[in-house]
Known about the structure:
Elements: E1 13-17, E2 22-28, H1 29-34, H2 40-50, E3 56-62, H3 69-77, E4 81-86, H4 99-106, E5 110-116, H5 132-135, H6 137-151, E6 164-170, H7 172-176, E7 190-195, H8 204-222, H9 227-241, H10 247-259, H11 262-274, E8 287-292, H12 300-309, E9 317-320, H13 334-361
Helix pairs in contact: 2-6, 4-13, 8-11, 9-10
Amino acid sequence: MFNQHEWLKGYNSRNSSPEFHAQNASYSLMTLAEKGMLKRDEVSGMLLDTGLRDFTWHITWAEDYDTTDDELEARIGEAEGYVVFIHGWTGSNVIWEDLPARIVARNRKLVALVVDHNGFGQTPFIHPTPDIVHCNPIGAMRAVESWFELLKLRRQPGERQLKTVNFVGHSMGGAALFFLDETKWRLGEQTRTALAPALLLHDEMHRTFYTTLGLGIGLVGRLRFLEIVDDIVSPAVIDILADGATERVKAEHTRIYAETPKSVTARTFAAMGVIDQHPEPRQWEFMRVVLGHKDRLVGLIPALNLMEELNLDVDQIRVVLGTHYLFSVGDEMARVHEQNRALIMHDILHLHTRALQKQKEG
């Protein structure tokens, strides 16, 4: 008989963030299955369906003292809500820096879950050349949804306590949020904040760019004599991917780009150019989209045209001064990026409060 939240004791490591009075723990599905804290057949089924070898994440929660292992189930399992952070291309949980800790410090009833996903970081694909349906934003969203279901952190049948799951995605992770399966959620059970979403359905210029970039990276992986070209091109790619970010984030993109098989990176980039499935929402009530005016990776006008076609309301869209990493306070545009970060935190927390209230009313 499984205690549904016993897995919280099966962390790989723990540490703290004294500045925000927050604690962190890291997890992986395979480790939890091997420890018998999640059902092995369910974990294996989820990984097989998503083409992944493992799935990893970090949890951050606010606490003034060290939470004991025996207290974890109540402290995290009984939170009133969760904020799930989904990174983008060649990223990992690191790209969010201290944003999860800042969020839970502002609302101590929330817990942040920060994933590695889609073949990057500590969540690798099974095959070095994965199926493209597992590499695109749709596949990324399905993997995140399946993983979250395994954790049973959502409000379960018969459970009285109301909970809201707040998804926050950046770049490809932001695009993934448009493909969340709304049929599986009651109104007010989830919110979405898409930061610089790379949903390029009406942006032929950027679609061609990503498809071509993916093909080029794929050739580097197959033709060794092109490695010298990659040494020249990859810094430029990272510079665009991490535009406006801190040096720490840029270094993380560089590390992930170097450590990820070229075939995986190639497939992921190419997938952005070939995806043509339009989102089919029932409603966007609890969604916010944030776009930067100097974003070289996401075309502002095509993105706005798409938001109009998807029937998002004006008050659900923010256009801010900023680059692709519009929430990261690096050397570039630091003042406005700091303002953006404050706005984004406000939006996430406000959406959570509104959604939770909607559940209480319903």
